[in-house]
Amino acid sequence: MTISQVSFGSHEPVLDVKDLTVKYIGDTRSTTAVDRVSFSIGTGEVFGLAGESGCGKSTIANSIMRLLKDPAKIAGGSISFGGKDVLAMSPEELRRFRWQDVAMVFQSAMNSLNPVLTIGEQIVDIFTTHAGYSRKESLRRAGELLELVRIDPARLKSYPHQLSGGMRQRAVIAMAVALKPSLLILDEPTTALDVVVQQEIMAQIKELQRELGFSVLFITHDMSLMVELSHRMAVMYGGRIVETAKAQDVYATPRHPYTQALMSAFPPLTGPRVPLTGLPDGVKFRNIPDLTEVVPGHFVAPFGSDASVIDSANLEGAAR
Amino acid sequence: MSHSLMAPSAVSKTGTPALEIRGLGKTFPIGGLFSRDSVRALHGIDLTIGNGEIVALVGESGSGKSTLARCVARLEKPSSGRILIDGVDVLKRDRFQASRAFRSQLQMVFQDPFGSLNPAHRIEHFLRRSLAIHGKGGGSGEQTQRRLEELMTTVGLEADMLNSYPHELSGGQRQRVAIARALAVEPQVILADEPTSMLDVSVRIGVLNLMRKLRDEQGISMLYITHDLASARYLADRTAVMFAGELVEEGESLDLLANPAHPYTQLLVSAVPDPARAGSYDPVRRAELRQAVMASTHCVFDGDPNQACSAEEPVRHQVGDPANRHWVRCHLYRPWAAAGGHALASEPIQTGHPASNAQEEASA
């Protein structure tokens, strides 16, 4: 039983990741950052990947984009996008695949804008490089694009530092959807932003997603945000997926202790004030087994057995 | 018996609040050498923290929370106002820079536990140094050692971690060391500026619980600065909301977040992601709230004979039960235009670094 069989709706999956293993190879020892991870994303589906720093979620995103650099190595598994094998693509195919098929918004992407070029120049660049439009046509489309994320097209002449963080982030999102990719990867798109701005950006992404119909791989550690946006989600720990189900099901009945800890890490805004515990400093799960289907569509890694000991005397791992 | 960590040694018996901020203001000069322009980062802040009370200060980046923290910590010289610790005006007592006595009354815990511990020293060094400088180590080496171990136990760390270097510790553990270092001085007040925002989510609650425990067991008062409303609600007895360098609302945390009276507070509360009320986003309603913050034409207390409205400061309306000490600034009051204007533009200015908020306001 693979998880890919329960994608949202009955569509052909856009992205299918199977048993992906990524290792960081060192001189003396190697670390497995992503360990036999499988998931798939259907057409128009928002799939969330939750977990803390170091759990491997960004490594997965970088693997899909084929952006991994030494010492990281894809040691096993497959990634297929619309039936094509991403891992077997030639440099020329990759160039087209990136941005046209899959676009990515990086963590603190607003700082990824080039400070010495205007917003307009940077968007025009995408169209002339990837789509081969003329400069004039590109400029017209760039204006449309900014309107799509509700930025005044007059801002095309602005430099990044003249825009607020929220505006810059929206400009980056606009650039990501410029070529109408079928998959958008969002790696913590709002971590550096204030809560009010965050809310607006997320609403914007939702709207764009409805309008343009792309699929989304949404990576964050904020469970509340994830449940609000995603259709299905997976929780990662130490390079493994420990739980995956529909977002609402995970929210209503988190089954793995780690998922429960993540959920209770965010105190509620309503109801009585109850003491929460979170994950104690240093608690660590080991040898996480393969997922099993607990109820239809809800997969959880077995826990509490000898196979996944909880080790509280260790420094590394969970608390990092 | 050396210093017992269990005794609320720092609690004064007089009933004076641990920390009182009166009419605090801060302006930063902007422009060139001969420019006389300035930007108002803080204006007329009145805030009282009782003994053993945790007060949260919430607001967006650029609202001035960190400037307030820096002024109270005496890292920045306030332009006006008074800061009273235990009833003594510390700005008057040590006029030019913070004295050692002041530092032993008020300690800080910073946002970044990776930057606040020197990587070249063992954990023991940080704590031993705090004890030595403030003379809290006791007479003998044995007493100091016992005190060090006590401190580690208090913050929930193993005593043998004293020999570790910061890089061997996780973020949560480092933040605990930073808290232990503050505790070593036996302060009355701890100023915590976003102490959990750099930590991994699963250990954040642990640090908040530690802060609550210190308050409960040692009676330490705290000013907890955050932009996370939910954690403010979880930890703090009272919450104060800051907007454009001024306080707009303050009250008992649960009451304030359940019945936010100021449109800005309502805007903040409505933006917190909460799956329990998914789909709550209503652009029209939010546009109205924005409008109301900057240019409200009426106040909810209009026509209330007991609480007359006025656009002049300081009109503070009492909200609900007086026991909650919940007040809101009159809606008619217009925030200082420039600061409020861009803080609330549909694309608020995002400031990269909390400590530079005020300066960033200037450049906008």
UniProtKB/TrEMBL annotation, chain A:
| Domain of life (superkingdom) | Bacteria
Q: How does it sit in the membrane?
A: Peripheral membrane protein
| One GO term (biological process) | peptide transport
Q: Which CDD domains match?
A: ABC_NikE_OppD_transporters
Protein localization: Cell membrane
| Domain ABC transporter per the UniProt entry, residue ranges | 15-263
Point out the signal peptide segment.
none
In terms of Gene3D superfamilies, this protein maps to: P-loop containing nucleotide triphosphate hydrolases
Q: Does the keyword ATP-binding apply?
A: yes
Write out the entry's keywords from A to Z: ATP-binding, Cell membrane, Membrane, Nucleotide-binding, Transport
Q: Please tell me whether the keyword rRNA-binding is annotated for this protein.
A: no
**Pfam families per UniProt:** ABC_tran, oligo_HPY
Molecular functions per Gene Ontology: ATP binding; ATP hydrolysis activity
- List the record's Gene Ontology CC terms alphabetically: plasma membrane
Question: To which protein family does this belong?
Answer: Belongs to the ABC transporter superfamily.
What this protein is called in its record is ABC transporter ATP-binding protein
From TrEMBL, chain B:
Q: One GO molecular function term?
A: ATP binding
Indicate whether Protease appears among the record's keywords. Answer: no
Q: Pfam families recorded for this chain?
A: ABC_tran, oligo_HPY
The ABC transporter domain covers: 19-269
| One of the protein's GO biological processes | transmembrane transport
* Matching PROSITE patterns: ABC_TRANSPORTER_1, ABC_TRANSPORTER_2
User: Which controlled-vocabulary keywords does the entry list?
Assistant: ATP-binding, Nucleotide-binding, Transport
Where, if anywhere, are coiled coils annotated?
Answer: none
Q: Does the record bear Transport in its keywords? A: yes
SUPFAM superfamilies in UniProt: P-loop containing nucleoside triphosphate hydrolases
What PANTHER family does its record include?
ABC TRANSPORTER, ATP-BINDING PROTEIN, TRANSPORT ATP-BINDING PROTEIN
The name on file for this protein is ABC transporter ATP-binding protein
Please report the organism this UniProt entry assigns to the protein: Paenarthrobacter nitroguajacolicus (Arthrobacter nitroguajacolicus)
